[in-house]
């Protein structure tokens, strides 16, 4: 017993010596430093505490000759757009607010997000992030160079609780494997062409050829396949579940792999050998052979026949002419013209340089946006007194929660094209200008303390888009007021707009 105690005491003493040696060398273990290293991992005690004499007084945080862009020295309350692409090292300054940035940073992000980097004074409080660049999403690559897919959901944009998006590319003749999912799928083709094929729960079949600008929709659980045409394709998918993931779809290859062969053989009344060459892993996106140009060769029907036209899973939106107004154009697709997509309403908007999708909000739905091209900005106002301004480029996803007022302004030199998607039975919004134009004059004056001239120019119809100059520092837009003659009467512009939107 005494011998054991002696050994224990010796072990404890030896361990303390090792620990002391390790601490003196700045290491927690002995012999764990590379033999070719120099210096130490930790400093010594004499570095603790105050030191009134910096060892390197040449280091400075002063930014000499900071670069400014047009509008940056104007009052921060004006909230002018600041084009930080004009300088190499933008500074977070607006008027008398902010200061220079001498530090280590990613200047490209600062240039692309000037309204976050140097926020307008009107921004206030906290608003959930409303932007996600698809370029920051993980890209899942298909096999044999057949394509790829990347997504946005609540994992990367937590505020987007009602909708998620996927950007998918298929090389010529490639497939998105036969699959189904628990969410509804609404898709806009961005490039190229696609042949879609499906069958509903009644055994009715559907096949169609779609091109850039066309839309398809599949309800939850309805199986379908997608195959690219001769030029390949890229398309956008929008789902009515904010936490939707492309990795969670039901794939036909996985279904065969995850059931006993005896069960598969019995189900299909086949010999087990029929399944000897099944894929050993999911296909997801994979190469294929060109489909026949005559679509009737793939129009397979059973006793239930084909899906009736009124319940078609596709809409040839590319052939719909938009409503054109000063500053751009708009066209709408909702269940009034695409009945099968019962919960999806969308608008495709083009804004000319300087133009703006007017201030508005949506009554019952969040808004999911995808920017196809151009440079834009948006301010989301959230009750009671919070707002934040975000900047967008082509490939970005935007998200605005229900009832939050917002606009979309083209701040670049090219057209902005973006898609708005709502979870609503029809596309609708409240135009701020129209609301004030149809509110009793006295109420508007007493509330906002504005002039009669301002009230006289308020429209009594929804403008959708308001034009403006390309000059980002302009502050007087009186010359862009809507002609008074367009604001009046039965059969006027408002009725014309409603008629053309559902044409």
Q: Specify the oligomeric state.
A: single chain
Termini separation comes to: 99 Å
Average pLDDT, all residues: 90
Largest sheet: 11 strands, antiparallel
Structural class, judged by helices and strands? alpha+beta
Note the overall shape. Answer: flat
Q: Could you list the spans in which at least 5 consecutive residues all have pLDDT below 50?
A: 17-22, 24-28, 485-503
Strand content: 25-35%
| Count of DSSP-assigned helices | 9
Q: Helix fraction?
A: 10-25%
Brief summary:
The chain has helices at 2-24, 107-112, 114-117, 252-257, 261-267, 432-437, 441-448, 452-456, 493-501, and strands at residues 93-94, 97-98, 131-133, 139-141, 147-152, 164-170, 175-180, 185-199, 205-211, 215-218, 224-239, 250-251, 285-286, 314-315, 323-325, 328-333, 344-351, 356-361, 367-373, 375-382, 386-393, 396-400, 406-410, 416-423, 430-431, 465-466.
Task: Outline the structure in words.
This protein has helices at 2-24, 107-112, 114-117, 252-257, 261-267, 432-437, 441-448, 452-456, 493-501; strands at 93-94, 97-98, 131-133, 139-141, 147-152, 164-170, 175-180, 185-199, 205-211, 215-218, 224-239, 250-251, 285-286, 314-315, 323-325, 328-333, 344-351, 356-361, 367-373, 375-382, 386-393, 396-400, 406-410, 416-423, 430-431, 465-466. With 503 residues, it is of the alpha+beta class. Strands 4, 5, 6, 7, 8, 9, 10, 11, 12, 13 and 14 form an 11-stranded antiparallel beta sheet that branches. A 7-stranded antiparallel beta sheet has the order 3-22-19-24-17-16-15, with helices on one face. Strands 18, 20, 21, 23, 25 and 26 form a 6-stranded antiparallel beta sheet that branches. The radius of gyration is 31 Å and the shape is flat. The N and C termini lie far apart (99 Å).
């Amino acid at each position: 017993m005494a011998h054991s105690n002696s050994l224990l005491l010796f072990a404890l003493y030896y361990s303390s010596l090792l620990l002391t040696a390790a601490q003196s060398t700045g290491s927690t273990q002995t012999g764990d430093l590379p033999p070719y290293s120099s210096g130490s991992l930790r400093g010594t005690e004499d570095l603790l505490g105050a030191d009134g004499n910096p060892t390197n007084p040449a280091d400075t945080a002063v930014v000499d000759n900071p670069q400014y862009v047009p509008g940056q020295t104007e009052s921060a309350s004006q909230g002018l757009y600041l084009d930080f692409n004009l300088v190499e090292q933008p500074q977070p300054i607006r008027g008398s607010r902010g200061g220079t940035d001498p530090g280590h940073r990613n200047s490209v992000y600062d240039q692309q997000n000037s309204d976050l980097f140097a926020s307008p004074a009107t921004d206030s409080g906290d608003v959930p992030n409303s932007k996600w660049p698809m370029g920051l999403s993980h890209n899942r690559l298909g096999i044999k160079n057949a394509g790829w897919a990347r997504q946005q959901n609540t994992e990367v944009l937590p505020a987007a609780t009602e909708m998620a998006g996927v950007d998918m590319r298929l090389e010529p003749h490639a497939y998105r494997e036969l699959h189904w999912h628990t969410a509804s799928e609404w898709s806009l083709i961005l490039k190229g062409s696609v042949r879609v094929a499906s069958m509903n729960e009644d055994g009715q079949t559907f096949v169609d050829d779609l091109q850039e600008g066309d839309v398809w929709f599949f309800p939850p659980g309805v199986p379908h396949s997608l195959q690219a045409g001769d030029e390949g394709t890229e398309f956008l998918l929008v789902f009515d579940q904010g936490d939707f993931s492309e990795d969670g779809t039901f794939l036909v290859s996985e279904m065969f792999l995850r059931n006993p062969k005896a069960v598969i053989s019995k189900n299909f009344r086949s010999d087990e050998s029929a399944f000897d060459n099944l894929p050993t892993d999911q296909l997801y996106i994979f190469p294929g052979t060109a489909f026949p140009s005559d679509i009737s060769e793939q129009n397979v029907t059973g006793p239930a026949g084909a899906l009736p036209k009124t319940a078609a899973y596709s809409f040839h939106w590319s052939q719909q002419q938009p409503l054109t107004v000063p500053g751009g154009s708009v066209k709408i697709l909702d269940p009034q013209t695409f009945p099968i997509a019962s919960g999806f309403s969308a608008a495709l908007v083009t804004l000319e340089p300087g133009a703006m999708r007017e201030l508005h909000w949506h009554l019952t739905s969040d808004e999911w946006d995808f920017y196809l091209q151009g440079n834009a900005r948006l301010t989301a106002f959230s009750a009671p007194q919070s707002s934040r301004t975000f900047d967008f480029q082509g490939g970005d996803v935007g998200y605005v929660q229900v009832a939050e007022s917002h606009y979309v302004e083209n701040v670049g030199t090219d057209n902005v094209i973006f898609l708005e998607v709502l979870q609503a039975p029809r596309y609708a919004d409240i135009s701020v200008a129209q609301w004030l134009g149809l509110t009793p004059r006295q109420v508007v004056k007493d509330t906002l303390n504005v002039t009669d001239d301002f009230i006289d120019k308020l429209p009594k119809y929804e403008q959708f888009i308001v034009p403006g100059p390309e000059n980002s520092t302009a502050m007087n837009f009186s010359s862009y007021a809507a002609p008074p003659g367009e604001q009046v009467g039965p059969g006027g512009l408002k009725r014309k707009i409603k008629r053309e939107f559902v044409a």
